């Protein structure tokens, strides 16, 4: 797949066709930790997003290591905050947003963002969910896919940039921070998103699960 990440000298990836994530230490060149993720669908029926390339999507921000994935029997989006050393699940969220209706997702400063499309040249980021506070943020951000085939989006917390891979081209998008309010209520935001995502946006926070 193309959703693996490198963090603090370790390479994190999903074992092919298995509900298992692995940490590979690049300094000693060997696997040092692995974790089977409950309910992770590691086959084609569990692929994420409209592109359906991968079963999991690793993300890294200032808070550490995250995992976005799908589960059996549901189109909900699952997110786990991971211990970067032993891959324990520190927190998990079951979010009733249909991941099959968005092009890509990424996490910045504990906020989950969804890009409407990765094949349209001009698109939008209209979903932003503050995971720690369980609140929807009021956003309507322009996003571009210049070559109309973005296959991965990741955030570099050191350079404060988004990195994308768009039809063989690596692109960077500088991040400019603004005060983002909670102007829309959850009910109002759910009404606005329901036509696109076919679900509400209720968040179920399961602290300390494994």
From TrEMBL:
> Would you tell me the Gene Ontology cellular component terms?
extracellular space
The answer, when asked if Secreted is one of the entry's keywords, is yes
The primary site where this protein sits is: secreted
- What domain of life does the UniProt record list for this protein's source? Eukaryota
Keyword Secreted annotated: yes
Subcellular localization, as worded in the UniProt entry: Secreted
List the keywords (alphabetical): Secreted
Question: Which Pfam families has this protein been placed in?
Answer: OLF
Q: What biological processes does GO assign it?
A: signal transduction
Q: What is this protein called?
A: Uncharacterized protein
| Biological source species | Phlebotomus papatasi (Sandfly)
């Amino acid at each position: 797949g193309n959703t693996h990440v490198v963090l603090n000298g370790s390479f994190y990836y999903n074992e092919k066709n298995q509900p298992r994530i692995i940490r590979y230490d690049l300094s000693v060149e060997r696997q040092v930790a692995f974790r089977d993720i409950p309910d992770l669908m590691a086959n084609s029926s569990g692929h994420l997003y409209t592109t359906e390339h991968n079963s999991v999507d690793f993300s890294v921000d200032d808070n550490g290591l995250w995992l976005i994935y799908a589960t059996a029997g549901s189109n909900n989006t699952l997110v786990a905050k991971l211990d970067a050393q032993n891959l324990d699940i520190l927190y998990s969220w079951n979010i009733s947003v249909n991941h099959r209706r968005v092009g890509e997702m990424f996490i910045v400063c504990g906020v989950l963002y969804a890009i409407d499309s990765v094949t349209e040249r001009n698109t939008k980021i209209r979903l932003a969910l503050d995971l720690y506070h369980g609140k929807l943020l009021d956003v309507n951000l322009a996003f571009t896919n210049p070559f109309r085939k973005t296959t991965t989006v990741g955030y570099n917390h050191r350079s404060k940039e988004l990195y994308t891979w768009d039809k063989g081209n690596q692109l960077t998008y500088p991040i400019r921070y603004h005060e983002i309010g909670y102007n829309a209520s959850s009910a109002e935001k759910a009404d606005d998103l329901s036509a696109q995502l076919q679900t509400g946006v209720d968040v179920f926070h399961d602290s300390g699960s494994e």
